[in-house]
Design goal:
By secondary structure, the chain is α/β, with parallel strands linked by helices. The protein has helices spanning 2-10, 23-34, 50-54, 74-81, 124-131, 177-187, 206-218, 234-250, 271-281; strands at residues 94-100, 113-118, 152-157, 161-165, 191-199, 222-227, 261-262. Helix content is 32%, strand content 14%. InterPro entries: EngB_GTPase, G_ENGB_dom, GTP-bd, GTP-bd_ribosome_bio_YsxC, P-loop_NTPase.
Amino acid sequence: MARLAAVGVLMRPKCSSQSTWSQRKYLHAAKSKLAKATDFQPVPQSYTNPVDRLQPHVQVPIIPDSEYGFQPSREEIQDGASLFEPKNTEGEMFKFLGSWPNPHIMPKSDVPEVAFIGKSNVGKSSLLAAIFTLIPSLKVRTSSKPGHTKLMNVFNVNDCFHLVDMPGYGFNMPDHFETSVEAYLKARRNLQRVFMLVDADTGPTEVDYLAVEMMEEASKPYVMVLTKIDLAKQGTLIRNLMAVLKFRDSSKAHSCFPQPFLVSSHSGEGVAFLQTFIAYITGHLNIKSLSGAS
């Protein structure tokens, strides 16, 4: 989209320190060592929806019941997150498949695909590193330099689905954004969902509005994900979450899943919940309490 590219030229970087998520990795190792000796219990935040802890501070429902379609149980969240944990069984396939500038030369596959996209420096690579933290063979390169992802990076998750790390839009976006990212969104048949990331500390920006227009033009289902929730004060987080909902409605985001997700790649909060949604939409998890979410 020409307007999206034009805005990217004008944007300036907002640098922040990069950190990796180690909470679930630590809990996983601790549980393995202590399971026989103790009744080990994971930190409650690891398998919950971050919106639930915010709701008591708001008098009205943050997300109306009619839009709160994805409500897995704690056990289902644990099962969903386990899809991203190697089982050390023969035939497992967790690996980086390669990088491509053009969807027409990307390898064709019959497994579902999910893609992650967002404004430069939104924390996309750090989030993907958190999602794959228990899969050592899937290394996601992170950088303090905004816009370092220039190609579409494809990861194979145990032959269950492919995850595509897409170049960021805005500052330092690649010149081939239109012929790579936009072409991919319009042409990729196996694409099940796009995860559009928004900085929880700053809220949606003008360039995010343009990205929504791009998503709507491609007619591909997508989800809003607020990143870096550990960096935002509680009041700021609630305000920007509400801003995302208002932004979604005012931009007529018809292809957007009504329920946003909140994550922190640093603390790990919300990551398992997001992993569970990915497991569900790729057909690898049943949610008993689910009714009508798509």
